[in-house]
Every structure is written in C-alpha cells, then in structure tokens.
Write a structure and sequence with these properties.
alpha/beta, 54% helix, disordered N terminus, elongated, Growth Hormone, Chain: A, 504 residues, 7-stranded mixed sheet, Spermidine Synthase, Chain: A, domain 2, Rossmann fold, 15% strand
C-alpha cells in the first residue's frame, strides 16, 4: 500500500520534469547519433522506437514494485539523472573505443527508457488516494504532455545552439536529481532512509554540477580522441557540430565529423568548382552562391572584375561568423565575406529559392555531400525546378557532386536529376588529395561546352592542360543509369550511404 503523502503538487511537478528530461535525453541520443553515424532519419527512428518500447517495458515492470513506492521513485529519479546526465559525454568519449557503438547507444537509450517508464505508473499509484482516478489521469498526462512539448521546443531553439549536447545532458540530469532531493526534504518525516537518499542525491548533484562546469573540457577530450590533429575550435550550432583542427601543415574543417576541406589543397577543389563555370561572363555579372559559407568559393569569384554582385546563401550563421572572425580562416579566404560586393543570407537555400525573384548569371552550389535527408533535399528534382526560376536563358550552374570514382551512382544520380528538369549537363572531375577524385556538374538551359582554354584569372592549379582532361571520364568512372532523386524517395541519399559505407 502507498502511504498518503502531503506533497501531491511536488509529485505532479515531478511528472513534468520526468517528461521533459526523458524527451531531452532521447533527443540528445538521436542528435548525437546523427552527428557520429549519419543518416539522421534512421537514427532518430530507431532511437524513438527503442525509447518508447523501453518505456513500455518499464511500465510493465512497475507492477512488481509493491511497497515503498515513494522511496523507489526517488531512487529511480536519482538514477535517471545520473545516467541521463552522463549519457552524451560517455557516448562521445567511447565512440572511438566501443566494440559496437550502436549497442552502447541503444543500450543507454533502453536503460533510460525503462527507468522513465517506471516513474509515471509509480507516481499514479502514489497519488491514487490524493485525487479521483479521472482527475489523477488528467493531471498526470497533462503535465506529461506539457513537459514533452517544452522539451521539443527548447531543444533545437535554445539548448543545442547555446549549450551543446554535453552541457544540456548534465543540466537535465541536475534537474532530475534536484527534484529527487526536494522530495527527500519534504518526505524526511517518513523515515531515515529519505535522509540517506537526500545525501546520495546531493552527492550525485555535485558530480553532475562538476560535469556541467567541465563539459567543454570533456568535449575537447573526446574530440582529441576522434581527430588525428589538434582541435583548435569546436562548437555545436543549431544544425551541426563544427570542428576546426590544425597541425604544422594544414587547417581542416569538419562538420558532424565529415571533412569539408584541408587548407593544403582546398584551392584545387575551389578552382575546379568556380573557374570553369565563370568563363565568358557578361559585364556587371550577378553571382549566386548556395552553401559555401567558408567564403573560399567567393574568394575565387572575386578574382573576376566583371562581377558586380555576389549573393551568398548559407544556412548556418555559426559557419559564416567563424570564417569572418577567425584570423587563420580570414587569411585563407582573404576576407572575402567582407567584400562590399558580397551579401550573406543565413537561411535555408530551399526556402530562399522559393521567394527569390532575381536572375543570376552564374549559380555555384557548394552544399555538403548528401549524407542525410535534410541535405539530400537540396539535390532533388524539386530543388532544381526551383533553381530554374533564378536563371535566365544564358545562366550557368555548377554543383559539387561527390566522387565519381568512389560513388558513381551518387554522382550520376545528380546528373540524371538535373537532366530531368530540362537542364543540359556537362559533368567533369578533378583530383583533390584530401578527398581523391572529385566530381562536379555544370549545367545550363542551352547546350554548353567545357572551356579547354586557359583560365582568364590567376590560379594555383588550373591550366589549359588540366582543363583538357577534366571532362573525360575513364571506364571506372563512366556513366551509369540511376533513378532521379525526388523528395519522396531521396534515392541519392540511399546511393551515397551504400557507396561510402566502406569508408565510414
């Protein structure tokens, strides 16, 4: 039998805390898995399924708790706070060492789900003598759903961009344990065991507070294990984990663990991306850059005196700010983002194209590889149809299109998809040591030819001889038939995952 308690409001508030913290831990696990493993849709789907299933197990197990329900609830609350609080730091640190990271990840999610699943039935049984059954169910589930709503709103808008995953998990672990301590203080009259639990809770709280204070150190330590070069900058934005490393030879930028460029050879990539499509510019040329928040493509575009305007659209303001404020990076991009010709908009390119009414002479698309569905949508038939509205009859487009050697289906899928909206395409490739053989696709409304003459501006890599080989594809990179990448099938993401899986 549950004892009648004098703290029903505090217990109802604890329902709110349980729901909020439980969902936060679930969101942290899903976000962390998408950072480290890619394919955010798959990771979130599995984690949500495992978490809900585990809550069901916890609810079923609650029937075996027949006495001392308040004591059990407080103990579980402390345990949830401890496990949830350390979950993200544990996963980050063990990522490079766990024999099966997925087993560790889903095991932690399952354990958290079971414990959270135990709590709600226990609370309902503890409060059954305080409220009518109908009123009790209404109150408990109201607090539960309000907590879930709050978690889902503050996680992407506040917690990830301002605290990061490690600090967030410690913060909500602290909240869990604080509620347990508050209950122990209120329930001191029920026996010495609650005084013991209060001391355990306070000790746990101190440990979690230390973790919160040292969270940046923990994150730096975990990243030092994941990267072969010293990490000189790291930050979680609302969209991705940004890491900058440096050794004696080079700077490297990683987004969600994926290499974006190396300063040792990025000029090869950016010259190949920009200069072929920039030949034959009209006077007062207007250029649109989608992606490319590092300003390195813009650096190359600014070499052309014909350019009067550059519109840069990049989703993540944290990236563009980094490349405006870090002296090592502004030296690399030659402060291109400060040029008066450049206008930066930090918005989603898909949404930006829907409202844009300007026409551009050249459009340079420098998105990350289509490793997940949120990026994959930027390579779809729908996206390229939107792109047509920003083009006139003489406009030219170029898209970075992954490796035609490692991922031929992915590469040719981009080509097929652009063809499907009426664009004439011209695929080409070059060698970038940090990435290997890399592919690009130039396109226009009218048939175009690849420029085989020398480039009209100063370059470090491109020459007339280089240009003559770039649009030739040997047998191991030759055209392969693929499906068109559509919003409702995202075939490109499936091709990409399968082809790059061996290198992950």
């Amino acid at each position: 039998m549950a004892k009648k308690v004098s703290t029903p409001n505090l217990l109802l508030f604890s329902v709110f805390v349980v729901a909020t913290c439980g969902l936060i831990y679930e969101l942290i696990a899903g976000t962390l898995a998408s950072y480290l493993l890619g394919d955010s849709v798959t990771q979130f789907s599995i984690i949500i399924g495992v978490y809900l299933f585990s809550m069901g197990i916890g609810s079923w197990l609650s029937k075996f708790f027949t006495t001392n329900l308040l004591s059990w609830f407080v103990q579980i609350e402390i345990l949830v706070g401890l496990i949830g609080g350390f979950s993200s730091s544990l996963l980050f640190v063990l990522f490079e060492f766990a024999a099966s990271f997925q087993l560790l990840l889903y095991g932690l999610v399952m354990l958290t789900g079971i414990l959270v699943g135990l709590e709600i039935p226990l609370i309902m049984r503890i409060l059954k003598d305080e409220f009518d059954f109908t009123d009790l169910v209404s109150k408990v589930f109201t607090f539960d759903y309000i907590g879930a709503l709050l978690a889902s709103l503050v996680f992407p808008l506040v917690l990830v961009p301002y605290l990061g995953l490690v600090k967030t998990s410690f913060l909500f672990g602290i909240l869990n344990v604080s509620v347990a301590i508050a209950l122990c203080i209120q329930l001191d009259y029920l026996g010495k065991w609650f005084s013991v639990l209060k001391k355990i809770g306070i000790a746990t709280l101190i440990i979690l507070l230390a973790g919160f204070v040292l969270s940046e150190n923990i994150m730096r330590f975990s990243e030092s294990l994941s990267y072969s070069e010293p990490v000189i900058f790291s930050k979680s934005s609302a969209y991705q984990r940004i890491v900058l490393t440096k050794n004696k030879k080079e700077l490297r930028l990683y987004l969600n663990g994926n290499l974006q460029f190396s300063s040792a050879d990025e000029y090869r990539y950016h010259e190949a991306l920009v200069h072929p499509v920039m030949q034959g510019l009209p006077k007062q040329a207007k250029i649109l850059v989608l992606g490319g928040g590092d300003g390195l493509a813009v650096r190359e575009i600014l070499k052309y005196p014909e350019v009067s305007e550059i519109q840069l659209v990049d989703l993540d303001e944290a990236v563009t700010q980094l490349f405006k404020t870090n002296s090592l990076l502004t030296s690399l991009n030659q402060k291109s983002l400060f040029d008066p010709k450049v206008n930066v908009n930090n918005v989603d390119a898909f949404q930006w194209l829907k409202t844009n009414t300007k026409k551009y002479d050249v459009i340079i698309i420098d998105f990350p590889d289509p490793s997940n569905f949120s990026v994959g949508k930027l390579y779809t038939q729908t996206f390229y149809r939107l792109l047509l509205h920003s083009m006139h009859e003489s406009s030219k487009v170029v898209v970075q299109s992954t490796s035609p050697l490692v991922a031929p289906k992915s590469f040719w899928c981009v080509n097929q998809t652009m063809n499907s909206v009426g664009l004439n395409t011209l695929p080409y490739h070059t060698f970038v040591p940090s990435f290997g053989e890399w592919g690009f696709i130039m396109a226009a409304l009218n048939p175009i030819q690849f420029p085989h003459e020398s480039i009209s501006v100063q370059t470090k890599y491109l020459t007339a001889g280089t240009l003559r080989t770039m649009d030739h594809f040997p047998k191991d990179m030759a055209f392969v038939q693929t499906d068109v990448n559509k919003l409702n099938n995202q075939m490109l993401v499936h091709y990409f995952e399968k082809e790059w899986a061996i290198y992950q």
